[in-house]
Amino acid sequence: MSGSNVPSRLWGRIRRRDEFEPDLGWVLDESRRKWMVEHTSGVTKPDPALVIKNLRRAFGGLTAVDVDHLEIQRGVITALIGPNGAGKTTLFNLLTGFDRPDSGSVLLDGKDIERMRPHVRARKGMVRTFQLTKALTKLSVLENMKLGARDQVGEGFARSLFPPLWRSQEKAIEERAMELLERFSLAHMASEYAGTLSGGQRKLLEMARALMSRPAVVMLDEPVAGVNPALTQSLLEHVRELPIEGMTVIFVEHDMDVVWDISDWVVVMAEGKVIAEGLAEDIGKNQAVIDAYLGSGDDNDGEAP
Amino acid sequence: MTLAAVDWGFILIQTVETSLGLEAAVYALAAVGLNVHFGYAGLLNFGQVGFVAMGAYGMGLSVTLWSLNPFLALLVGMGFATVFALILGVPTLRLRGDYLAIVTIAAAEIVRLLARSTTLGEITRGAEGLHAFIGPFRELNPFDPGSEYGIGPIQFAGNQFFAIVVGWALTAVALAVIWQLMRSPWGRVVKAIREDEDAARALGKNAYWYKLQALILGGVIGGLAGMVQALGKATIQPDSFVPAYTFFFWTVLILGGVGRIWSPVVGAMIFWAMLTFFQGTLTAMVNEGLIPTALMDTSQVSQIRFMLVGVGLALLMVFRPQGIFGSREEMILDVR
Fold first, then answer.
1. For A138, which of B180, B181, B333 is closest by C-beta distance?
2. Where does residue B63 rank: exposed (0-12), middle (13-18), buried (19+ CB within 10 A)?
3. Any residues with CB less than 8 A from the CB of A181 and at least 6 apart, and which?
4. Which of A180, B38, B224, B252 is deepest in the core (most CB within 10 A)?
5. Which H/E stretch holds residue A219?
6. Which chain B positions have a beta carbon within 8 Å of A196's beta carbon?
7. Which residues, other chains included, contact B48 with Cβ-Cβ below 8 Å and sequence gap of 6+?
8. What does the domain layout of chain A look like in residue ranges?
9. Virtual CA dihedral for A44, A49, A51, A55, nearest 10 degrees?
């Protein structure tokens, strides 16, 4: 099989190489790129924000995640794709500390964060969203946003009893929250309960809330699942802007159009392993990826019809 | 044999008296603590009476055992409640919410059974309880024990009045603290944890630590309720801390409306007003022959009034599920 056999139905619009930002020179390096695509487990990146080493997690007999080596380049959008049950969300949970690996380590900016609890990792600049949106329904949209801010003086028990200590910070947080709400077209809902938002608006809110903490790494678990097409476009616009502000974005998505649309780099998982990574346009031609999605024919070559 | 023959004035005075009295204050405080747990932090505590007992015994033992002065005794009582919160919270708050519920209901019974056990008899005086602690507190009483205090027909004896004033004063302080906490970023985090713990953790909040703080805060307020009760009754008996009281506190909280600042206070007043009103009315009606003795006699009234409160609560759940102060808007969000 060659690349030409890839069904276009599956891979959608192929992203052209000249669409890439010029400063992502490493992506454009022809020889290296080819090598990367054919390589099945992680290649080194010039400036990785995250490095995953020998990360393993099994549920009973099922190995959900088994990643030998994977690096996530800083300042670009990395898509994490793979068939259902490939271990994408489990990997997310392992990276953010919501689940603990059986072995292996995760390095953020070169430092091992494996032993850190989720909230500590969040404070180090790793913020995630969830596949099933977690809008805090009985808090107002604005309160939801304010919650996202880091290092709040008034979050200490004793200090919270003395408003003068935190009032000015609170005001600054509120201003920033309103700015972000404006950007995400939610400003008119600021004083409403978050529970009154539609599913799509909740996705927007969750992302905006995550940005309140000025994260270094943003991890989005299916950011546009269940969102109507019009809102999807505006959501994707926001995701695209994040690297410009210096953030590293990792997202899980099943919608291939979305993946081609916004990702700079694609990592493909199947049965817990990283089977390929590369540019979106090349990933579609990768034999291992095609096998993973369409079912492998290799084992049966020359045997059963 | 008519309703007109019933002394309504007397029943009404009694009703108002109990809704302002010692029990109402004690129940209000205990429910204020429960409101912190469940209403704001979403913690299911089915052992609030354990905190009440810990507060009472902490205060009582400080005097009988260690001869501390009343103010230190108050702090020790709060300390006992804090320790109880730590024992319950440290192992369970990392787990799912149901675990706390299971542990609290058992732990409260353990407290009661330990207090009345012969093993600790030397210290806690078993089922007989503590009495000797009251002296130093009575010395602080600015009111004359021999006179009555109140407005018009509503009168309380001096010692009782002292406990009632202390009770409502502590309630006021507790409400002020909670009001300030809940409009601060601390309250925001606690409420966020109630809504979705993982979301709060993903945003860098240490959910475990906040839940522990909320458990301690609500538990200490429950402990204060126990101290007020001890002060008013001049006795601390283990069997006044049976599990049923926890559920009365829950009734009070749900009557008022969960997660609202005033709801425990108003809930406690209504709860006791209802109990007294039903007691008085039913007794009078039996005596007047309006209710045949075949159906009910006066000795059964005190049980039947609880049934009527139960009916009242059931009706409230049907017609106003958010409670008296609760927000219907918020209630509906749960179903979306």
1. B333
2. buried
3. A141, A142, A145, A187, A189, A190, A208
4. B224
5. strand A217-221
6. 333, 336
7. B30, B33, B34, B37, B104, B108, B218, B222, B245, B246, B249, B250
8. 16-130+216-223+246-294
9. -140
Which residue is listed with tokens 């969830």?
Answer: A130
CB-count burial class (<10 Å; 0-12, 13-18, 19+) for A305: exposed
Q: What are phi and psi of A50, to 5 degrees?
A: -125, 135
Please return the burial class of B167, using the count of CB atoms within 10 Å of its CB with bins 0-12, 13-18 and 19+.
buried
Lowest mean pLDDT among A175-189, A206-220, B135-149, B166-180: B135-149
Nearest to A21, CA basis, from A258, A246, A286, A256? A246
Query: What is the predicted ipTM?
Result: 0.84
Per residue in A205-224, pLDDT (tens digit) is 999 999 999 999 999 999 88
Contact A130 B185 (CB under 8 A): no
**Topology adopted by domain A16-130+216-223+246-294:** Rossmann fold (3.40.50)
A149, two tokens: 């801010």
In one letter, which amino acid is B315? L
Map out the domains of chain B with their CATH numbers.
Answer: 3-333 (1.10.3470)
Altogether, the residues listed in chain B come to a count of: 336
Min Cα separation A78/chain B (Å) = 20
Both tokens of A160, joined, read 């919270």
Q: How far is CA A79 from CA A276, B88, B315, in A?
A: 12, 43, 54
Place A290 in a pLDDT band, splitting at 50, 70 and 90: confident
Distance CA B258, CA B250 (A): 9
**Angstrom distances, CA of residue B156 to CA of A109, B108, B166, B170:** 69, 32, 14, 19
| Best residue of A131, A136, A141 to probe chain B, by most B CBs closer than 10 Å | A136
